[in-house]
């Protein structure tokens, strides 16, 4: 199978002729690094869309991708309501709850209960200060339209492999064992290197693919240096390969 990082928490998973998306987010602002040259029309082929939570950097492009592809979107009931209010027809929305399993052949997706990372005060204050000239623009990316909803981690079975994707760096339910690939987010706290490394320690996967470390919507985001994260993983004496993805490049698993 192949996996393609789309920036932020977004991934395309490809097995045989079938593609599915997790948290696709393409519409970055002009200052974002890296830029994303793909648009919703490049995803007319996808079979299903899986969403971890409702924030703009996980769902803003979902209505357009559903329109282009006709694919169903699996998300919490609250996020489905937000997507419906943003024009997604209810027959394409699949309200989902923890422990539900969804077949999108050859993929099986299981929703695990998760939590959103808690932004720390230092990060909140510096982000607000950096954003003070763009508060009108940024206010359109928050509130009811992009409410968090219930947060899921997605446990994926495909081709005899187990993949685990978290959209935000907090987990209440450890996945017990045998995770081959862990897609771990690295953004949202001043001490995120330690927080994300601790998630890796708990999951103990065969391969780590960090994501969400990019500057996807400055000044709300920042580029996260992954060196401290790698150091924090090694300090936990975990000899796991860490593959840092580049945007839109295929990773063979
Ligand atoms: Zn979020």
TrEMBL record:
Transmembrane segments: none annotated. It comes from the Bacteria. InterPro entries: Metallo-B-lactamas, RibonucZ/Hydroxyglut_hydro, UPF0173_UPF0282_UlaG_hydrolase. Residues 7-212 form the Metallo-beta-lactamase domain. This is Metallo-beta-lactamase domain-containing protein. It comes from Candidatus Solincola sediminis. The lineage of its organism: Bacteria, Bacillati, Actinomycetota, Candidatus Geothermincolia, Candidatus Geothermincolales.
């Amino acid at each position: 199978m192949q996996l393609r990082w789309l920036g932020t928490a977004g991934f395309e998973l490809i097995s045989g002729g079938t593609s599915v998306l997790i948290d696709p987010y393409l519409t970055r602002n002009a200052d974002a690094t890296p830029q994303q040259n793909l648009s919703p029309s490049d995803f007319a082929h996808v079979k299903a869309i899986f969403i971890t939570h409702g924030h703009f950097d996980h769902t803003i492009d979902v209505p357009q991708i559903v329109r282009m592809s006709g694919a169903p979107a699996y998300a919490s009931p609250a996020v489905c309501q937000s997507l419906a209010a943003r024009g997604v027809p209810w027959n394409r929305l699949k309200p989902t709850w923890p422990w539900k399993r969804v077949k999108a052949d050859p993929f099986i997706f299981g929703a695990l209960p998760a939590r959103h990372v808690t932004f720390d005060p230092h990060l909140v204050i510096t982000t607000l200060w950096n954003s003070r000239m763009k508060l009108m623009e940024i206010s359109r990316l928050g509130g009811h339209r992009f409410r968090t909803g219930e947060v899921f981690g997605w446990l994926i079975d495909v081709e005899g492999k187990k993949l685990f994707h978290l959209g935000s760096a907090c987990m209440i339910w450890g996945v017990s064992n045998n995770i081959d690939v862990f897609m771990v987010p690295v953004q949202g706290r001043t001490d995120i290197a330690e927080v994300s490394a601790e998630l890796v320690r708990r999951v103990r996967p065969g391969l780590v693919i960090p994501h969400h470390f990019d500057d996807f919507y400055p000044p709300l985001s920042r580029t996260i240096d992954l060196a401290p994260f790698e150091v924090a993983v090694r300090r936990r004496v975990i000899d796991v390969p860490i593959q840092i993805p580049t945007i839109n490049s295929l990773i063979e698993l």
